[in-house]
Structure formats: C-alpha cells, structure tokens
Fold:
Amino acid sequence: MISRRLLTATLFQYRTDTQRCRILRLIAGLFAAILAWGNRTTIINKCRELMSLFDDAPYDFILNHQPRERMRLMSFVHRTFNGLDLLYFVEYLQHYYMNINSLEHAFSGHMSPDDPTVEKGLIGFHKMFLCSSTRIAPGNTSAPLPETPPVNA
Structure:
C-alpha cells in the first residue's frame, strides 16, 4: 500500500510549513488516499493530473472556484472513481472548509485521546461524508468495518 506521506512528498516539495501548505497537503493526501489502489505509477500520475485540474492549488480551488470551473473535473477518471464522484468530494470539501478550517477535525472529532488507533476517526469521517451526499458511491470512500461482538454458539 502506498502511504499518503509518500504520495504527498512526491507531489509537493514544499520547504516551508505554513498553515496554507499544511492544508494543501491534507487535501492532496485525502485525494491520494482515495485514489491509492492500483499501480503505484498510475496512482502518482492520477494524483498529479488531479492537482493540475485544481491548478496545483486544491485549497484555493475548492474554496474559490466558480460553478463553471467544475465542468473540467468531469473528465477525471481513476478506476471506479469518476468526475461525478470528484464533484461530490469538491462540493463536500467546499462546504466543510466554509465552516471548519481544518480537515484534521473531520477525523479527530470522532476520536478520544485514549483511542489506540484511528479507526473511529476513519469510520466517523466516512459516515459524516456519506451523510452529506447521497449521490456519492459508497465504495469510493472506504472505512474499516466496526468491530462486531463475537456470536455465542
């Protein structure tokens, strides 16, 4: 599996750690994680293509794009993730960033400091995202299966 850190390091070679760069890396990392299945070279190329569609400024694009600029996103396809899925993600992120300035909270807001893993954060984000749009294909946002109690025989 390709890590978010590897993909974002490959795509963005920033030397500063400003808030804007952290937000950019979070958005790029989210999309890299969504696309991270298949051939490594293809994934990196698709991430580059996607960032190019965002004018290499995903945060600025998401917050400030005009509706007509969304049309160019419709051409994006990676395996089962298509332009329509991308539009829903952009719509969700635009709404999210207008209300909360950190994508990190979308995950950490579902966790407690005592949680040994990020499982609750992933499940919480998955539910929050799917509740925001019934138009997204659930298979394009994965989450760990919640632990099920053992069945008594």
Remarks:
- The mean pLDDT is 80.
- The first strand starts at residue 77 and ends at 78.
